[in-house]
Design goal:
alpha+beta, 6-stranded antiparallel beta sheet, 6 helices
Length: 277
């Protein structure tokens, strides 16, 4: 999974870079349109279009029969039964295309979350840097020796805090200037590990946590390369604020307009692309 993320990160950075300085909703609209087109292409080439068209005609015929014979209970029940069977056939025919659509869609959503889901820090703001240690890296809850290497533009407000119950070290960082930074943490003399911190008002990839290389961790948090497996650090967190996308003056999570627009574009373009859905 780490190799897949390594390929997808620069690709999404490149595709979304032209929209970084624009309102987030502009980028969401464009991405929704492209997603709808790609889903229609996949659906067209992985589904039985002839069978789907026949099923839809049978469903419409059943609805027409109910309306035409609305005073005949037996005919209505027969038509409803036929519609139910035909809908089950429709679901069966749609299942195979979904097998091809859903896995790539999950990867796309995972990448987009870290472009649209968080707000970058601003100069003058502060945030928490939290380092989770592996269970074997802490002996009897004793505070480990740790050092923090900060580039110019970031500074630590006070020394680290040790939370033995969580096996966690925490620093409060203050941002003095806009920029992309790499913070380095060294624990008990082991090889230092880095964490990106971005101070920007643009819509760019932000990584709230760098995690281990396990499949599930990399699927959920693909925004940074995995941590080394032989080090004492389990995860490194930076607290970014959640982003609300403005739609007609209403703030909402980016997935809401993304899914609504993707579905709307798919239905709007299905005739032009000659796809039966």
């Amino acid at each position: 999974m780490s190799y897949v993320n390594a390929a997808l990160r620069p690709l999404f950075d490149l595709l979304l870079a032209p929209f970084a300085g624009l309102p987030t909703i502009v980028s969401v609209v464009v991405v929704s349109l492209l997603t709808a087109i790609l889903m229609l292409v996949v659906f067209k080439h992985t589904s039985n279009q002839t069978a789907l068209a026949d099923v839809k005609r049978r469903i419409h015929a059943g609805l027409f029969e109910i309306r035409l014979f609305n005073d005949d209970l037996r005919a209505i029940l027969r038509a409803q039964s036929e519609i139910l069977r035909t809908n089950l056939t429709y679901l069966k025919l749609s299942l195979w295309p979904m097998v091809w659509i859903l896995p790539p869609l999950v990867l796309v959503i995972a990448q987009l979350q870290f472009h649209y889901g968080y707000e970058g820090l601003r100069p003058g703001q502060s945030t928490l840097l939290e380092v989770d240690l592996k269970a074997g890296a802490v002996q009897d809850g004793v505070r480990p020796a740790a050092t923090l290497d900060l580039p110019d533009g970031l500074r630590a407000e006070g020394r680290e805090v040790w939370v033995p119950a969580e096996s966690q070290l925490a620093w409060r960082l203050a941002a003095d200037a806009a920029g992309d930074y790499a913070v380095k943490v060294t624990v008990d003399g082991a090889e230092s590990v880095s964490k990106t911190v971005r101070v920007t008002d643009r819509t760019v990839r932000l990584s709230p946590v760098r995690v281990d290389p396990s499949f599930l961790s990399q699927l959920i948090f693909p925004a940074e390369p995995a941590l080394p497996t032989d080090g004492p650090v389990q995860a490194i967190h930076v607290a970014y604020e959640d982003r609300a996308v403005s739609v007609l003056g209403l703030g909402m999570h980016w997935m809401i307009p993304f899914f609504v627009l993707s579905i709307a574009f798919a239905f709007a373009l299905r005739g032009w692309m000659k796809v039966t859905i």
